[in-house]
Amino acid sequence: MDATATPGPEQQPAPQGWQAPSAIERRLYEARMRGDWPTYYDLVAQADLYVVQSRTLSDAEPDTFHWHPTWSPQTRSNCLAVYTAGMLPAPVADPVFDTCDLGWFAKVWGPTKPPYLVVNPGSPCEGVLPASPDGIALWKWHDAKRQQRVGLAQYAVHTLEVGGPRQGRVAFGLAVGAQLFVQNGQFWNSLANHGQGYVREKKTLERWWGITDREGWSDVLERLLRADMVSSVWEFVLHMRHAMAQDFAGPVSTGHWREACERVIRARAEKAAQPQLTPGGVTQGRATSTATIESEVAGVQRLIGRITRYEARFRADGLLAEGAYVRSVEAWDYARASAMARWGVATRLCSVAEAESAVIRAGLLVRANYRSWADFSASYTLGRCLRFDEEEFGEWYDESLRTHRALMTDPTSPWLTIPWA
Q1: Residue 40 within a domain
Q2: What would the pLDDT profile of 75-99 be if each residue is shown by its tens digit?
Q3: Which end of the chain has fewer CB atoms < 10 Å from its terminal CB, N or C?
Q4: How far apart are CA 172 and CA 198, in angstroms?
């Protein structure tokens, strides 16, 4: 099927000084200027298409798509306007945006719907896609091409080139959460974030975090910034090894590490059983059962085994340098705090200014606790894998490794373009 004769706006040069907000819009503009409509359709099929929705209606009927056609002077008819990610305005309370793709539109478009779909109306990369039977068949054809290539372009670093910070404190704080956004195919530096659309972002926050209101969002954000959601047992074990490495000025054997952790657990239990002198007088100690102590020791020994095996795999895959080790997994919380700030904007639970403050805090914490992006990334990956991967080295690990490699090798990556110090 050929789209070479697809009608569209007359080819006009971009206004002087116009810069495409991102690679998405730049490629659309270049295809349009060449009159290369097959490529233009391919690009539209690959993109998330954002559609204006009423927030009131979206909250009341989150599973219903509401059609809001607008008049187009180009076609002199009603059209449905859609926007690519770089063309979105800063989020406001109402309206909101939701995402669809060209294949979905091809399935639901009917004779009562507008005669055209307009991509980025009024911009130099605008495209008018006829919704006639032949036009919709073309949409389906290009969507089928996209589905054959799903996964090929994942784990690329996408940068918002207009409207997104690329240097400075805010950019650094956004780079702290970059793994989560590279993994999802989104801009790493979009603070005024729409994410995957208002309804999807709300559902994601509720499903994964149990967050349904501003209070819940704020509570989780503060806990993440305190690194209060990372397991205290993980941190105890890692801090014990790091302290010994500093004391002995060299590597710590796994056996020595295990013995030291066991001694501390037993010493703590013994101390807790002894009477304690407090300002209020003598307080009786609390004895810990032998079974509980033995269970704690066994659990820590298993955890040390898991960590050493993960680190061995990290070194083999380039996540850790030879001889290096992970000192803390608090990075996992800090990265999620940076992302949580942006998710708050997307779901209208906070303002852009509040999100900016939070990502700056996340950045300062990361700079204070880690030595480099590579050090930070290994810490984040270990935390994520300890929580989800179950030592399967499956999807959770593979996603983390791919995003790490993208961020450590792509010339446009913030991990290569933003100074650490």
Answers
A1: yes
A2: 899 999 999 999 999 999 999 999 9
A3: C
A4: 25
